[in-house]
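Figure caption, in words: inputs first, then the predicted bound structure.
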Amino acid sequence: MTAQTMLGKPLAAAVKEDLRARVAALAERGSVPALGTVVVGDDPGSLAYVRGKHRDCAEVGLASVQVRLPADVDPAELRERLLQLNEDPACTGYIVQLPLPAHLDESAVLELVHPDKDADGLHPTNLGRLVLGTAAPLPCTPAAVLELLRASDVELDGAEVCVIGRGTTVGRPMGLLLTRRSENATVTLCHTGTRDLAAHTRRADVVVAAAGVAGLVDADMVAEGSVLVGVGITRTEDGLVGDFHPSVLEKAALVAPVPGGVGPMTRAMLLRNVVELAERHPVAG
Ligand SMILES: Nc1nc(=O)c2c([nH]1)NC[C@@H]1CN(c3ccc(C(=O)N[C@@H](CCC(=O)O)C(=O)O)cc3)C=[N+]21
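Bound structure (5,10-Methenyltetrahydrofolate present):
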């Protein structure tokens, strides 16, 4: 079997098209939603990524504001800036770019973001809502994976899904989303403590790999005709490498590649969260 690919860009373009119309409708009611980004330090990767987000915003008619703070920022100063954004009616929602420098407590910082302004869906209140199944902004990457699977009509009801990675931004919320009644999948959450990863991936209909280990899962570890979604991304001398080894393409039915799969959709999901926050809490701009 030679796998078909699930491409993120065309799907992201369709989402953006829909968002453009919704932003225009908000504008007619006098509301101009804006995304805020907070970057601590000058990691080139983080800065490039945030630049991309501001470009994405412009494409759909969202305003955006960037806050930049030095790598050695006093936690009290960072707190002040976040509380300002919480109060600022011109900022609909914002994200704090991760990872943060080591002297800052990531969980404590994310908790300062007002849940109604949490564009990443990573505030404990919103993660709690995800557990409870009530309305909340969804973490962008798991939401992107779900949209890719839906767009390809992948059957999730009753499916065995193996998620590799238990992190707060991808693996753990991914498991919560897939086991909702509306998705109805059976999820096995694997991680670095998993004794026999291959035993779990081989029996899965769908594997979502968010380990960040280049080529971790090869053809021998996946079932014939399975659906594979790559999330983890590693920068090597040969460029960007995903968690799936290229050999899987001979065995799988459907593969979301890295790069070009989940990444572009993740960015679109961030925009969707901002528009949804604006629709829920309209503020005259
Ligand atoms: N508060 C916060 N929210 C995030 O959502 C967040 C974050 N911090 N920190 C970093 C990670 C990483 N992440 C990516 C999203 C899209 C691509 C993406 O579009 N990737 C392209 C390739 C881009 C490239 O060439 O580097 C692709 O897969 O095709 C990559 C990485 C969001 N993150």
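The mean pLDDT is 97.
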